[in-house]
């Protein structure tokens, strides 16, 4: 199992550079950031752009993978985003993963002055966005005239460092999103099952994630794809697991989700006074001692 972190884009760069360097030095597999224009309780505080943040992070890190968790069509366009992704991959020497999701009806959906899209339209747009982004990052010139997005002789030259393109990690739990992940994703992202009651237990959460993984595996089988070729990423902080309370708690959480089929577990870099508050020393030990203890875990998938 891989251990990664997510760093919210809330830091002026004089502070942020040290946070990103620390993620690299601590040995995390990847360091992601949220790609929103603002987010929930952080709406009225500092919040910087994901792409410039990752570009700066590429310059102060050497090993850790970088990426969005996740980008959505709520305010992104495939042609311009493809150019930014290609540039990030160049700046980082091929260390970028692009997380993609349908987005929600929150701030990102209304900040440009429009009405939020329905769940069906968000799913439609994620499909069309992903299909075109895939073409843009694998073909030097693209003309595309179907679905919600267009491209006319769009150039993405010289293309990404990574071949055949930057990997996609697609956040999805519904049937359409899982089919999309099976067709286009090198990774799949879950935050658990949001339909569970507030008093749900870790055991219930892990069973729900196991069911999600089984549906992903079925979608891969339908697409003629080996399910083991898709990384399964859990973003913690939204499940009833005490992952950041101690190293032992993290290891126990990782064991539980490895049995559910998860191959990469992501913890939030601590932010005091927020829902992501945690002991910085525990966080650092999770990156070192905890990661060492879970590195050899086998997943619970039948294909792994």
From TrEMBL:
Keywords: Flavoprotein, FMN, Monooxygenase, Oxidoreductase. One of its GO terms (molecular function) is alkanesulfonate monooxygenase activity. Transmembrane segments: none annotated. Residues 12-239 form the Luciferase-like domain. One of its GO terms (biological process) is alkanesulfonate catabolic process. It comes from the Bacteria. The keyword Oxidoreductase applies. Gene3D superfamilies: Luciferase-like domain. PANTHER family: ALKANESULFONATE MONOOXYGENASE, ALKANESULFONATE MONOOXYGENASE-RELATED. This is LLM class flavin-dependent oxidoreductase. It comes from Cellulosimicrobium composti. The lineage of its organism: Bacteria, Bacillati, Actinomycetota, Actinomycetes, Micrococcales.
């Amino acid at each position: 199992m891989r251990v990664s972190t997510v760093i919210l884009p809330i830091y002026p760069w004089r502070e942020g550079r040290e946070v990103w360097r620390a993620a690299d030095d601590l040995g995390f597999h990847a360091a992601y950031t949220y790609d929103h224009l603002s987010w929930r309780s952080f709406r009225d505080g500092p919040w910087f752009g994901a792409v410039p943040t990752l570009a700066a992070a590429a310059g102060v890190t050497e090993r850790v993978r970088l990426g969005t968790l996740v980008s959505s069509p709520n305010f992104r366009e495939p042609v311009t985003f493809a150019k930014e992704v290609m540039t990030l991959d160049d700046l980082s020497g091929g260390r970028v993963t692009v997380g993609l999701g349908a987005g929600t009806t929150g701030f990102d959906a209304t900040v440009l002055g429009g009405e939020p899209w329905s769940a069906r339209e968000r799913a439609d747009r994620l499909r069309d966005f992903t299909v075109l982004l895939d073409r843009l990052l694998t073909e030097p010139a693209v003309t595309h005239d179907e679905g919600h997005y267009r491209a006319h002789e769009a150039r993405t030259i010289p293309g990404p460092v990574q071949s055949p393109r930057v990997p996609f990690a697609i956040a999805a739990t519904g049937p359409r999103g899982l089919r999309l992940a099976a067709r286009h994703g090198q990774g799949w992202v879950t935050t658990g099952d949001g339909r569970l009651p507030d008093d749900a237990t870790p055991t219930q959460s892990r069973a729900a994630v196991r069911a999600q993984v089984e549906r992903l595996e079925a979608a891969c089988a339908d697409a003629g794809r080996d399910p083991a070729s898709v990384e399964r990423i859990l973003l913690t902080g939204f499940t009833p697991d005490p992952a950041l309370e101690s190293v032992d708690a993290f290891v126990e959480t990782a064991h539980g989700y490895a049995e559910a089929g998860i191959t990469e577990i992501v913890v939030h870099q601590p932010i005091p006074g927020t829902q992501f508050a945690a002991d910085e020393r525990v966080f650092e030990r999770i990156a070192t001692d905890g990661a060492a203890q879970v590195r050899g875990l086998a997943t619970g998938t039948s294909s792994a």
